[in-house]
Amino acid sequence: MDDVQNVSAHLYGKAEPTTAKTTMSVREMQHLLGLGKTDSYWLLHKNFFEVILINDKMRIVISSFEKWYANQVKYHKVNGPPPGEELCKRSYSVLEVAEILKVDSDTVYTLIRQGKLKAETVDFWMRIPKEEFERWYRSQSRHRTAADRERDREIEAQTISIPEMAKLLGIPREKVYWILDCKKYRDCFVIERVADRRRITKTSFEIWLNSQSTYRLQEPVMEAHEEPPLELKCPKSEKYYSFQEIQDFYGISRTALVTWIREEGIPTIDVGRAKRVRKDVFDDVLKSKRKVEGDT
Prior knowledge:
The protein has 296 residues and is an alpha+beta fold. It is 49% helix and 16% strand. Strands 1-3-2 form a 3-stranded antiparallel beta sheet. The chain has a 3-stranded antiparallel beta sheet with strand order 4-6-5. A 3-stranded antiparallel beta sheet has the order 7-9-8. β8 (191-194) and β9 (197-201) form a beta hairpin. The protein is elongated.
């Protein structure tokens, strides 16, 4: 080792202190990363870190090796800290961005393909620089972080949206925009923004509402309730049905009933201008037809 330090002193002007090792051999790097000889020399030839010759033997500058190790995620030390410390400080993985936005990874890949979110490839893995992520995030309002969603909920609880204001006053949305922007009223409102949309604080809305007489709150419109369906009633007569009773009670159309009377010979009587159908005969015909339908 003394020979190595002496040669290093000849090359760089001074010897390495025995307590501060600045280079390592290829074999040491190989054992450090748990690599075979071929993979070790492949890394050397890719010029990922600085290599010097000492006594015609390649030595790896440890500081350059550690810098490379902290900016990649493919190679791991057998015994040592995980790789990519510096890389993780300055960039996000696709999964990390998906977790921040609470979306799936396919959504993040779509943003990258569309050119909205810029990414770089490190050891075949996509990484999104944090500066690029912040730039993109500020430029849009659709996706929100958990912190911003919590802040948005707090603001929404204390404000109303433009459509809500229009509904409260019973006016078109365009009229609300006019009220907010006109010189007469605009100083009355305190505006908050949620996902780049304007919202009016409830306090300022109430103060404005009481300060003028042109616009008033509208009474809520009661929702119309559907009439309950008519209940089926049993026939009034024990011997005869009216046509309407058969239609209501059995769900048989008037056309079908007339056909049955003609084809099955069901007895009828005239009561004024209306006909009545013999109950027992009709029930027998109905049972036989329902039985045929069931067998079919």
